[in-house]
Design brief:
The protein is an alpha/beta fold. The chain contains 17 helices and 13 strands. It has a seven-stranded parallel beta sheet with strand order 3-2-1-4-5-6-7, with helices on both faces. It is globular, with a radius of gyration of 22 Å. Bound molecules: uridine-5'-diphosphate. The site of uridine-5'-diphosphate has 19 residues, from helix 1, helix 12 and helix 13. Uridine-5'-diphosphate binds next to helix 1, helix 12 and helix 13.
Length: 452
């Protein structure tokens, strides 16, 4: 379909943004488009895994050491600052190169908030790929209003109040983060919304059936085309996520899972950014141990504040749980969630993890940390009703134990599992011929081909 046209993609260099952008590149490639990736040298992509794409690296000069000293918001601000000029130079050069297929458009991540300015100057149509859900974006778009009406900054005395402008959210679920510089966060959010609003269209790794209300509201508020074409990772059922993984995935997970009973294991992972204190870490560890369920736990280096890796784990912990626990630094998550031994996913509710869990029909234990994770967890517990929240009153081992047992062995867990299987079916239909995502992708491809 897209033969003879090139699409340039510009992923944001964090794991939860890289995975869906590379998946989108694969999707468009199967539709006949040639693909060029522009990527930063910070968290650089491994081009050898994608011989079918062309890669151009831009120099941002952000080192691991520099990045490790910053909070996420300051890091994002720095990357934005350092990337604008090299990105513009790189794109201008690509546009003036006549030896390749003509470039139809750019697809960028709106976390880069300078891109629209560049593409306006270069007269190139630009789409954005939003790697989170629609409702959290609507909440971002409402930030000026929420600040005006006093919902933001959040005050402890209002946490339980509903936000009627954004059903079904309560104040405590608004997508904020404890940033060193709150203004930098508000600026980032406004930049993300602006990149979306001014683009030729927004591509979502989401699904019409999951976010019907939010999409309808967005259609009213934004006069640009929307393309909910997710879940991206399901376009290629056999594909793994190892090719876009920044950390090495520990394959011992799979041989360990092979030795467990069907649906018996709690898979625990809080994604690539969230971090916990050593006190929280111990409550999780003892809660898992007391639950007596087997667990596969991803403890990324840096997950525990102030520790390199497993130092706070009590000596002999894994021996004491009698072989019921397996700890790794990073897992092949898609393969883990698809494994028959996995019965629940204790997650931070990053959007990718949430979608990946739904697609495999795995009930969730929700422990959101910040921004869209809080919105996604609300969907899981109150809208789709396919999971339970843990740590409502602070993380405590007794609560952890009870929540795990509820989801794994009690009636409530059975009901959740049944709803989750229905949801999984519904979602998996959307990629089939005539399904909502299938149709949205056809629209996107035709839209790109008719740009001039
Ligand atoms: N992931 C993985 N191995 C792990 C943990 C996570 O491959 O041990 C992948 C996961 O499949 C997902 C991504 O990393 O695609 C994390 O994205 P998400 O949006 O869930 O969270 P973030 O890391 O952005 O907070």
């Amino acid at each position: 379909m897209g033969q003879g046209r090139r699409v340039v993609l510009f992923p944001y260099p964090l794991q939860g943004h890289i995975n869906p952008m590379l998946q989108l590149a694969n999707i468009l490639h199967t539709k006949g488009f040639s693909i060029t990736m522009i990527h930063t040298n910070y968290n650089s992509l491994n081009s050898s895994h994608y011989p079918q794409f062309t890669f151009h690296s831009i120099f941002d000069g952000v080192s691991e050491t520099e990045a490790s000293k910053l909070d996420t918001i300051d890091l994002i601000a720095l990357i934005n600052l350092r990337c604008e000029t090299p990105f513009k130079d790189c794109l201008a050069k690509l546009l003036s190169d006549n030896s390749e297929e003509p470039i139809a458009c750019l697809i960028s991540d709106p976390t880069f908030h300078f891109v629209q300015g560049v593409t306006d100057t270069l007269h190139l149509p630009k789409f954005v790929l939003r790697t989170s859900g629609v409702l959290s974006f609507l909440a971002f778009a409402a930030f000026p209003l929420l600040r005006e009406r006093g919902y933001l900054p959040i005050q402890d005395s209002h946490l339980e109040e509903a936000v009627p402008e954004l059903p079904p959210l309560q104040v405590k679920e608004l997508p904020v983060i404890d940033a060193r510089d709150p203004d930098a966060f508000y600026q980032l959010v406004s930049g993300i919304v602006n990149e979306g609003k001014t683009s030729s269209g927004i591509i979502w790794n989401s699904i019409e059936e999951l976010e019907t209300l939010a999409l309808a509201t967005l259609h009213q508020d934004f006069s640009i085309p929307m393309f909910p074409i997710g879940p991206f990772h399901k376009y290629f059922p056999a594909a793994s996520s190892s090719s876009s993984s920044l950390l090495a995935q520990d394959q011992t997970c799979i041989s360990w899972l092979n030795r467990q009973q069907p649906k018996s294991v709690v898979y625990v992972s809080f994604g690539s950014i969230a971090a916990i204190s050593d006190t929280e870490f111990l409550e999780i560890a003892w809660g898992l141990a007391y639950s007596k369920q087997p667990f596969l736990w991803v403890i990324r280096p840096g997950l525990i504040h102030g520790s390199e890796w497993l130092e706070p784990l009590p000596k002999g912990f894994l021996d004491n749980v009698g072989g019921k626990g397996h700890i790794v630094k990073w897992a092949p998550q898609l393969e883990v969630l698809a494994h028959p031994a996995v019965g629940a996913f204790w997650t931070h509710n990053g959007w990718n993890s949430t979608l990946e869990s739904i697609c495999e029909g795995i009930p969730m234990i929700c422990m959101p940390f910040f921004t869209d994770q809080k919105v996604n967890a609300k969907y899981v517990t109150h809208v789709w009703r396919v999971g339970l929240k843990v740590g409502n009153m602070g993380l405590e081992r007794g609560d952890v134990e009870r929540t795990i047992r509820k989801i794994m062995v009690e009636n409530e867990g059975m009901e959740i599992r049944e709803r989750m299987l229905n949801l999984k079916e519904k979602v998996n239909v959307c990629l089939k011929q005539g399904g909502s995502s299938h149709q949205a992708l056809e629209r996107l491809v035709s839209y790109i081909l008719h740009l001039h």
